[in-house]
Amino acid sequence: MKKESLFSLVEDGLPTGEFIDKRYSVHGLTVRVVSDSRVILDAVGGLLGYFEQNKISPADVTFYLMKKEPSEFPYQETFLKEGRVLFDSREDNEFNLSAVLDTYLLYRSWGKYFMADYGSRGSFFIDTSAGLAFGFLPDPESIHPAILSNFMFLLALSEMFRARNYFLIHSAAVMGNGKGVVIPALSGGGKTTLCLSLLRGGFKYLSDDRPFLRRMDGGFEILSFPEEIDVTDKTISLFPELHALDDSSFTVGLKKKKFFVEGVYPGITVDSTVPSVLLFPKIVDEKKSQLERLPKIEAVSRLLPHSLFVMDPDVAARQFHVLCEMVETMDCFELHYGRDVLDVHKMIWELI
User: Based on CB atoms within 10 Å of each CB, which residue in 40, 105, 130, 308 is the most buried?
Assistant: First the structure.
């Protein structure tokens, strides 16, 4: 039964027959994406393709993504006049989003509803409690697919999932011997290189960039989010199996090349694992890598910046407690990541 929401009135008023309907099953939650634009659907499919399903099942979360002006959303003016600004990337620019993505984000709340305003590129209107969102993107062809999917759509998707206690973490995640290794790091911090080092050394793959964390009875669970892996030419040169690939094996990302991990390491993806080791890589100019154990309080402080944006204060508080409690169950280390890229997996195997 549909939850009561002002946005439900908008949904009920949409014309039928204009949209393509896609469904994705993401670890027990069905995501429905409806759009009148193949460009938008292809961008979203690039992010969620691993989870696509053919059957039509009831949706837990529904997105209507339309090639229309945000002014066509009935409550846009109310958001602009009465909404409270929660985040403005032009002022709260810790992550330099405006420069990196050549766009800005102005995030507003109005009652229990949210608006992600990307200026001329469009806006998303989100009701997390009802699991209903509308994206109005007047010119999706002018938006790089990676920005549309991995930033604009993903922000709304992550808010929906966090409200349902699935928390995204900006990290890589692999599994060995049934134990999960979580690797948080900013761009250029060695996360992808270390992830690939472990995969070629026998570990299983969950994500290179943003796995889900979920609290389970008696513990925690890391859930996979397998998408294309972004790599630089330098990273490619470090791995013989990547260096041997021809250009057709890569697609062009926002700033890097991308490839599907299963195309290089078949059968390597797993759906879930128990988080056991928290590993913060730090690139050093040394021949051999070394491990340094971290106190739990320091590990928490390092992990928090990798928990991605959380706009709802209540959800942010829940996520904070979940992260703190998860870290208490893990062994935490800083890896002084040296030049032994192809052998570092041996050291990590010894941890688990």
Answer: 40
